[in-house]
C-alpha cells in the first residue's frame, strides 16, 4: 500500500503527470479530457476519480465533482483488498471535499483508511489534520496520543497536549484536563527530556494555567531553561511568573536585570515599578516602604541614565517622570518639580530630534516649529481644553490651524504625493474644532467649513485616511450618504479591515435606501469572513507542522474571536432582511427567500447560538470622531450640553452601553424573518378559515408560535406583552403623546404589524373597552404608520439645510413596518383570489370574508395615502432647484460684512490659491490647490442628497404601484 | 513611549491597519498569518503607550538554499512615530531572533533603488551591504538592491522546522511576487 516508486495513487506517474501539468497551467478542459482517458483505463481507481473531481471543482461544476468524490469514497470504503489506498489519494479527495464544504466526508475517508491500515503514521497524520480542520479537539487528542505511542516522538505528544489545552480554552473541557496534559509531559521528560523551545513554552503555559508558578520557575531555571534561546525572553517570563506568584521583591530584581540589558524597554520599566509598589496586591499604604522603594527606583534609573551612552535611549528619562508622577499620586510629590521635569524632558527630546536631522543634513527649523505647534494643539485637544473655550476663542484656534497648514505647505514641496505632508494633522484638528462650533451654534456655515478644510486637504493629497473617515461621518450626518459611501470606498477597505473599519459606514447604510451598495458591502464582508474561516483550518495545521504550538492556541482563539464578532452576526442577520425588503412587493419572492432561510428559523438559530456566549467587538473605536464615539451615538443630534459634557469623558460608558444594546438589537432583528413567515401564513389561514368555515382546523401551532415570538420581541423592548399592546394602542389613539422619531418607534410599529397578523387568527385582542375609533388591529397599524409619517414630515425641515434629518427614520418606516404590512395584505389577497382572479366558486368572495375584505380595503387605502404623503414630501425636496439649495448652503459661509460667525476659515482656504507661489510649494501642490473648488464641494453635497432622495422616491413609487395593483383586484 | 515586543495573532488586526495608514496598499491577511504561524519568533511590533500598534517587522527564514538565512519581508512604522528609532529597534529584534533561534548566517532584504531614506537606514545604521541589483524587481518596473548583512552565524541548532510543500506555502508563492513583498520604505527611519 505504500507509494511505490514512480507510482502515484497506484497509477504510473507518467500517466498522471500530464494531468497535473494541465491543472497547474489552468487548462482544465484539457485536464478533464486526459482524466477521462485515464479513467477508462483505471475505472475503479479512487485516485483517478479524485483527480477528476478536483478538475470538475476547479471548473465550477460542484455537483458533478461531489458525485465523483462520493463514488471514489464508496470504492475506497468498500473493503476491497484490490483497491489502492494511499495518502495522496486521500489528501486529493480531502482538498475537493473541503472546497465543497464537506469536511466530514474527507474525515470519514481517513478514518476508514486508518482502521484498514492501523499504525500507518502518514495516514494518521492525515486524519489528525482532518480533525484539526473540524476543530474536533478530543479526537485530535486521541489520534495524537496513538501516534505518540507508535513513534514516541515529542511532536506528537505536543500535538496531544495542545489538543487538550484547546479543549479547555476553546471547548467544553474541564480544567482538570490540564493535569492529564502535565502528567503526559512529565512522564515524557523523565524518559526523553525535551528538545524544542516551543515545547518548553507549552509546558510552562500549562503550569501557569494551573497557577503552579513555583513549578514553572523551577523548570525555567533548571536544565530545560536552556531551551529558551533569547535571554531577555527568559527573564521576562521569569519576572512575570514571580510577580504572579506574589514574590514582588524577586520579580523587581529580575525586571531590574532586564532593564540593564534593555534600557529602552518601557513596558519592562512599568512592570518593575509595579512590582516595587506591589500594584497587583495591596498598594503600599505606609510611607516608609514607599519612600525607600521609590528611592531605590530613583537610584536605579539614575544609574541607567549614566550607563546609557546611547543618546537615543528615552526610557530612563521617561521613567524618571513616571516616578515623580507616582509620587504625586501618592501625595508625596512636588507638582512644580514634575512640571519642570516635564519641560526638561521635552527640551531634551526636541534637542535629540534636531540632532538627528542635522546629521541627515536637513536642518529644518520651520518643520520643528510646526511639529511643536501641532503638539500643543493636540495636548489642548486631548485634555479637553477645547471644550471649555468660548466660541470666539475656539474659532480663532480653527483659523490658526488652517492658516498654519497653508503657510507651511512649502515644507512639503519636495515630497512625493504618496508621502504624508507636514502639518497634515492640522486640518483634521481644525475640522473637529469646526464641528464643535457647529454643535454649539447650530450655524450651518461651520459644518460646511469643517467639510471644506478636509476636501481642501484631499485635493492636495488624496491619500489621507483621517480626512476620509471624518468626511464619511460628516456626509452621512448631512444626508449625503452616497457621497459618504464614495469617500468610504476610496479608503479601499479590505481584508481584516472589513471587520475593524466598515462600521464607519455600515449602520448608516442599513437604514438607507441604497440597497444595491448595501448589498455589495454585506456580500463583500461575508465573503471575507467565510473565506477566512475556510482557510484558517488549514493555517492551524501549518502551525502544528512548524511546531509552533503556542501559536496553535493563539490562532484558534483568534478564529473564535472573529467567529463571535458582533458585526459578523449582525451582518448574517441583516443580509436576508435586506433581501426581504428588496423583494417585498412580490410575495412569491418573499416566500422563496424565507424558504431558503428555513422559513426564517435560520436567523433565530443564529441568535440562539450566541446566547450565553459573549460577543466580540472588533471595531477600532479610536478612529471614530469625537461626536460619534459609537455607531449608535451622535452628539450632534442633540443640543450642546455645556462644557461639562465633554463627550470624551463619557466614551467609556457609551461603549459599554452600545455593546449591551447590540446584543438586544441582534436578538430583536433575528426574530423578524420568522415573524414575517408566520404572519404570511397566519394571514392566509385566516382567509381559509373563513372560506372553509365548517371543518377546517385552524393551525393553532402557528398562532402560538407567533405569540411566543411577539412576547419575546416585547420583552427585548422591556415590556410585558399586555403592556406592549396597551402602549401601541396608546400611540395610535393619541393617548400617548407623539415621541420624536427613533429606531425604537420602528420596533413598535413592527410589533403592531405582526400583532395584527397574529390577531387575524387568534382574535385575542378585544376592543370593547378601548377608544371607539380604534376598532381593529388593522386600524391600529394604519393609524400608527400614517401618524408617524405625518408627524415626522411636519417636524423635518428641508433636507438640504437640516443635517441629521429624520430621513433614515422615514426610510425605515416605509421599507420595514409598512412593507411587512403590505406583504401581509398580499398574503390575504392571494388566499382570497388563489389564481390572481376572483374565485369562481360561489361567484364572489365568501360572505364571511366581507368584514376582512373591508379591513383590507381600508388598509390598502391608508397605506397608499401614507406612501403618497412621503412621496409628496420627497418631490418637494427634489423639486427645489439645485441653485436655490446651493444658495442656501453657500451663503452660510459668505461673510458679507459680518464680523462674527463662520467664514473665516473658508476665506483662508479660498485666498490660498492666489497667495501660494509656484516657487515655494512646487507645481504639484500649486496645481492641487488651484484645482480645489469650494462651490464644487457644495454641489457634490447637494447631488449626494438628491441621489439619496431619488432612490427613496423610487422605492416609494414601486410600493405604491404594487398596492394599487392589489386594490384593483378587489 | 514605544515598546518593541513579539507579535501575537491578535496584533494582526492593528498591524494591517498600520499598513493601510502607512501606504495606500495592504497585504492579504493570509500573508501575515503564514508568517506568524511559521516563524513566530521573527515578528515584532512597536506598541505605543496606549496599546496602539505603530510599526512592525515581518520576516521569514529561507531554508531552501544551502546557507540558512533570514529575509526581511516587510517593515513599517507610522509616520507619526518617526525619528524615534522604531524601525531600527524592530530590525534589531528580528535579526537577533534569526541568529539566536534559527542560527541564520546572514539576513537579506530588498529595497527600492530610489528610496534613499530606507537605503541609509540599512547601510549606515544597520550595516547592510549591497549584494546584487535585481532589475525591475518591483511591479512598477523599478530596480531593487538585494542587500545583505552577515550575522555571527551560530551553528544551526536542533530546533529544526519542516517547511516547504505545506498547505499554504504553495498558495503563498503567488503573494510573494515582487511588488507585494516590498519593504515600506517611504515611512522608514
Description:
The complex is a heterodimer of chains A (970) and B (189). Among the domains of chain A are: 117 residues, Serine Threonine Protein Phosphatase 5, Tetratricopeptide repeat, CATH 1.25.40; 99 residues, no CATH class; 234 residues, no CATH class. In chain A, 71% of the residues lie in helices and 0% in strands. A two-stranded antiparallel ribbon of chain A has the order 1-2. The longest helix of chain A is centred in the last third of the chain and has 45 residues. Chain B is of the alpha+beta class. Chain B contains 5 helices and 7 strands; from the N terminus they run βααβββαβαββα. At the A-B interface, helix 18, helix 25, helix 27 and helix 28 of A face strand 1, helix 1, helix 2 and helix 3 of B.
Mean pLDDT of chain B: 77
DSSP helical segment count of chain B: 5
Helix-strand string of chain B: EHHEEEHEHEEH
Q: Into which percent range does the helicity of residues of chain B fall?
A: 25-40%
Kindly report the spatial arrangement of strands forming the biggest sheet of chain A.
Answer: 1-2
Q: In terms of per-residue confidence, which ranges of chain A show pLDDT below 50 for 5 or more consecutive residues?
A: 358-363, 836-844
**Beta strands of chain B, count:** 7
Rg calculated over all Cα atoms of chain A: 35 Å
| Number of alpha- plus pi-helical segments of chain A | 43
Strand content of chain A: under 5%
Write the layout of secondary structure elements.
The complex is a heterodimer of chains A (970) and B (189).
Chain A: E1 7-8, E2 11-12, H1 13-24, H2 28-41, H3 46-58, H4 62-76, H5 87-99, H6 103-116, H7 121-133, H8 137-151, H9 154-170, H10 177-192, H11 197-209, H12 213-221, H13 231-244, H14 248-261, H15 266-276, H16 287-307, H17 315-329, H18 335-360, H19 365-382, H20 391-407, H21 424-441, H22 444-460, H23 465-477, H24 481-489, H25 497-500, H26 506-510, H27 515-545, H28 549-563, H29 566-582, H30 587-596, H31 601-610, H32 647-691, H33 700-716, H34 721-733, H35 743-762, H36 777-795, H37 807-815, H38 817-832, H39 850-879, H40 882-890, H41 904-915, H42 918-931, H43 934-969
Antiparallel strand pairs in A: 1-2
Chain B: E1 3-6, H1 11-22, H2 29-38, E2 44-47, E3 53-62, E4 69-77, H3 86-102, E5 106-112, H4 116-125, E6 129-134, E7 144-150, H5 169-172
Parallel strand pairs in B: 4-5
Antiparallel strand pairs in B: 1-2, 2-3, 3-4, 5-7, 6-7
Amino acid at each position: 500500500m505504500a507509494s511505490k516508486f514512480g507510482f502515484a495513487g497506484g497509477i504510473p506517474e507518467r500517466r498522471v503527470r500530464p494531468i497535473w501539468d494541465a491543472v497547474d497551467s489552468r487548462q482544465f478542459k484539457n485536464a478533464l479530457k486526459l482524466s477521462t482517458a485515464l479513467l477508462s483505463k483505471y475505472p475503479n481507481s479512487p485516485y483517478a476519480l479524485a483527480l477528476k473531481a478536483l478538475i470538475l471543482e476547479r471548473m465550477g461544476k460542484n455537483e458533478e465533482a461531489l458525485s465523483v468524490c462520493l463514488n471514489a469514497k464508496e470504492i475506497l470504503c468498500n473493503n476491497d483488498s484490490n483497491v489502492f489506498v494511499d495518502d495522496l489519494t486521500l489528501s486529493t479527495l480531502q482538498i475537493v471535499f473541503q472546497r465543497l464544504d464537506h469536511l466530514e466526508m474527507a474525515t470519514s475517508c481517513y478514518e476508514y483508511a486508518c482502521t484498514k491500515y492501523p499504525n500507518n503514521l502518514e495516514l494518521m497524520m492525515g486524519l489528525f489534520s482532518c480533525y484539526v480542520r473540524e476543530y474536533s479537539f478530543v479526537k485530535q487528542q486521541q489520534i495524537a496520543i496513538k501516534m505518540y505511542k507508535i513513534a514516541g516522538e515529542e511532536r506528537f505528544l505536543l500535538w496531544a497536549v495542545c489538543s487538550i489545552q484547546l479543549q479547555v480554552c476553546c471547548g467544553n473541557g474541564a480544567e482538570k484536563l490540564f493535569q492529564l496534559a502535565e502528567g503526559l509531559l512529565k512522564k515524557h521528560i523523565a524518559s526523553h527530556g525535551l528538545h524544542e523551545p516551543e515545547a518548553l513554552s507549552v509546558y510552562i503555559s500549562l503550569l501557569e494555567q494551573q497557577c503552579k508558578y513555583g513549578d514553572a520557575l523551577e523548570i525555567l531555571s533548571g536544565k530545560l531553561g536552556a531551551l529558551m534561546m533569547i535571554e531577555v525572553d527568559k527573564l521576562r517570563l521569569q519576572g512575570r511568573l514571580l510577580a504572579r506568584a506574589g514574590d514582588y521583591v524577586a520579580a523587581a530584581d529580575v525586571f531590574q536585570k532586564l532593564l540593564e540589558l534593555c534600557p529602552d524597554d518601557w513596558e519592562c520599566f512599568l512592570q518593575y515599578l509595579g512590582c516595587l509598589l506591589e500594584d497587583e496586591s495591596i498598594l503600599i499604604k505606609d510611607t516608609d516602604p514607599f519612600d525607600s522603594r521609590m528611592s531605590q527606583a530613583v537610584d536605579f534609573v539614575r544609574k541607567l541614565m549614566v550607563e546609557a551612552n546611547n543618546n537615543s535611549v528615552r526610557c530612563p528619562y521617561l521613567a524618571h517622570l513616571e516616578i515623580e508622577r507616582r509620587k504625586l499620586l501618592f501625595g508625596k510629590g512636588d507638582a512644580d518639580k514634575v512640571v519642570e521635569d516635564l519641560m526638561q524632558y521635552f527640551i531634551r527630546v526636541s534637542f535629540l530630534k534636531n540632532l538627528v536631522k542635522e546629521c541627515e543634513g536637513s536642518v529644518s527649523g520651520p518643520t520643528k516649529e510646526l511639529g511643536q505647534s501641532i503638539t500643543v494643539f493636540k495636548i489642548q485637544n486631548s485634555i479637553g481644553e477645547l471644550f471649555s473655550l468660548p466660541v470666539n476663542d475656539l474659532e480663532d484656534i480653527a483659523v490658526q490651524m488652517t492658516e498654519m497648514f497653508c503657510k507651511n505647505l512649502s515644507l512639503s514641496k519636495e515630497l512625493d504625493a504618496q508621502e504624508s505632508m507636514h502639518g497634515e494633522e492640522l486640518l483634521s484638528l481644525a475640522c473637529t474644532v469646526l464641528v464643535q462650533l457647529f454643535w454649539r451654534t447650530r450655524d450651518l456655515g461651520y459644518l460646511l467649513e469643517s467639510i471644506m478644510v478636509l476636501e481642501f486637504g484631499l485635493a492636495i493629497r488624496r491619500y489621507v485616511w483621517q480626512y476620509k473617515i471624518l468626511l464619511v461621518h460628516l456626509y452621512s450626518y448631512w444626508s449625503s450618504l452616497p457621497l459618504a459611501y464614495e469617500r468610504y470606498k476610496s479608503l479601499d477597505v479590505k481584508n481584516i479591515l472589513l471587520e475593524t473599519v466598515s462600521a464607519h459606514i455600515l449602520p448608516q447604510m442599513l437604514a438607507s435606501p441604497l440597497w444595491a451598495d448595501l448589498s455589495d458591502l454585506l456580500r463583500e464582508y461575508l465573503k471575507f469572513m467565510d473565506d477566512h474561516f475556510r482557510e484558517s483550518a488549514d493555517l492551524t495545521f501549518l502551525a502544528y507542522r512548524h511546531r509552533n504550538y503556542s501559536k496553535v492556541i493563539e490562532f484558534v482563539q483568534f478564529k473564535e474571536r472573529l467567529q463571535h464578532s458582533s458585526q459578523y452576526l449582525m451582518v448574517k442577520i441583516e443580509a436576508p432582511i435586506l433581501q426581504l425588503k428588496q423583494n417585498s412587493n412580490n410575495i412569491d419572492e418573499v416566500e422563496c427567500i424565507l424558504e431558503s432561510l428555513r422559513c426564517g428559523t435560520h436567523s433565530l438559530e443564529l441568535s440562539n447560538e450566541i446566547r450565553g456566549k459573549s460577543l466580540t467587538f472588533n471595531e477600532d473605536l479610536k478612529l471614530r470622531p469625537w461626536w460619534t464615539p459609537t455607531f449608535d451615538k451622535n452628539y450632534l443630534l442633540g443640543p450642546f450640553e455645556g462644557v461639562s459634557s465633554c463627550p470624551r469623558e463619557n466614551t467609556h460608558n457609551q461603549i459599554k452601553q452600545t455593546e449591551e444594546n447590540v446584543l438586544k438589537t441582534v436578538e430583536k432583528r433575528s426574530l423578524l424573518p420568522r415573524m414575517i413567515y408566520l404572519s404570511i401564513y397566519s394571514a392566509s389561514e385566516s382567509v381559509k378559515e373563513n372560506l372553509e368555515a365548517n371543518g377546517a382546523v385552524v393551525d393553532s401551532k402557528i398562532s402560538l408560535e407567533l405569540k411566543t415570538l411577539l412576547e419575546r420581541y416585547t420583552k427585548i423592548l422591556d415590556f410585558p406583552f399586555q403592556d406592549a399592546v396597551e402602549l401601541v394602542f396608546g400611540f395610535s389613539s393619541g393617548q400617548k403623546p407623539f415621541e420624536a422619531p427613533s429606531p425604537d418607534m420602528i420596533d413598535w410599529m413592527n410589533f403592531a404589524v405582526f400583532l395584527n397578523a397574529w390577531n387575524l387568527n387568534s382574535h385575542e385582542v378585544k376592543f370593547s373597552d378601548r377608544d371607539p375609533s380604534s376598532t381593529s388591529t388593522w386600524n391600529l397599524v394604519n393609524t400608527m404608520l400614517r401618524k408617524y409619517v405625518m408627524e415626522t414630515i411636519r417636524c423635518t425641515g428641508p433636507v438640504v439645510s437640516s443635517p441629521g434629518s429624520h430621513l433614515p427614520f422615514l426610510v425605515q418606516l416605509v421599507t420595514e413596518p409598512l412593507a411587512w404590512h403590505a406583504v401581509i395584505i398580499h398574503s390575504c389577497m392571494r388566499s382570497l383570489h388563489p389564481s390572481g382572479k376572483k374565485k369562481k366558486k360561489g361567484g364572489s368572495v365568501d360572505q364571511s370574508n366581507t368584514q376582512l375584505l373591508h379591513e383590507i380595503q381600508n388598509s390598502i387605502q391608508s397605506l397608499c395615502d401614507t406612501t403618497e404623503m412621503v412621496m409628496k414630501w420627497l418631490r418637494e425636496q427634489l423639486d427645489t432647484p439645485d441653485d436655490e439649495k446651493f444658495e442656501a448652503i453657500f451663503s452660510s459661509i459668505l461673510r458679507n460684512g459680518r464680523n462674527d460667525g463662520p467664514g473665516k476659515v473658508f476665506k483662508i482656504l479660498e485666498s490660498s490659491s492666489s497667495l501660494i507661489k509656484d516657487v515655494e510649494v512646487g507645481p504639484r501642490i500649486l496645481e492641487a490647490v488651484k484645482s480645489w473648488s469650494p462651490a464644487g464641494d457644495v454641489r457634490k453635497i447637494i447631488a449626494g442628497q438628491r441621489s439619496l432622495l431619488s432612490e427613496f422616491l423610487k422605492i416609494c413609487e414601486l410600493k405604491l404601484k404594487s398596492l394599487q395593483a392589489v386594490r384593483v383586484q378587489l | 513611549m514605544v515598546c518593541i515586543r513579539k507579535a501575537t495573532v491578535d496584533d494582526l488586526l492593528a498591524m494591517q491597519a498600520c499598513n493601510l495608514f502607512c501606504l495606500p496598499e495592504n497585504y492579504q491577511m493570509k500573508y501575515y498569518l503564514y508568517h506568524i504561524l511559521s516563524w513566530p519568533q521573527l515578528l515584532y511590533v512597536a506598541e505605543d503607550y496606549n496599546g496602539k500598534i505603530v510599526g512592525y517587522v515581518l520576516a521569514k527564514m529561507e531554508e531552501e538554499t544551502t546557507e540558512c538565512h533570514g529575509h526581511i519581508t516587510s517593515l513599517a512604522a507610522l509616520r507619526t512615530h518617526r525619528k524615534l528609532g522604531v524601525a531600527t529597534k524592530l530590525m534589531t529584534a528580528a535579526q537577533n531572533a534569526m541568529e539566536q533561534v534559527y542560527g541564520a548566517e546572514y539576513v537579506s532584504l530588498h529595497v527600492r533603488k530610489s528610496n534613499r531614506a530606507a537605503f541609509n537606514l540599512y547601510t549606515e545604521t544597520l550595516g547592510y551591504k549591497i549584494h546584487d541589483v535585481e532589475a525591475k524587481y518591483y511591479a512598477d518596473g523599478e530596480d531593487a538592491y538585494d542587500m545583505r548583512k552577515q550575522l555571527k552565524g551560530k551553528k544551526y541548532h536542533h530546533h529544526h522546522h519542516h517547511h516547504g510543500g505545506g498547505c499554504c506555502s504553495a498558495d503563498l508563492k503567488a503573494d510573494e511576487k515582487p511588488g507585494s513583498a516590498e519593504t515600506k520604505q517611504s515611512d522608514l527611519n
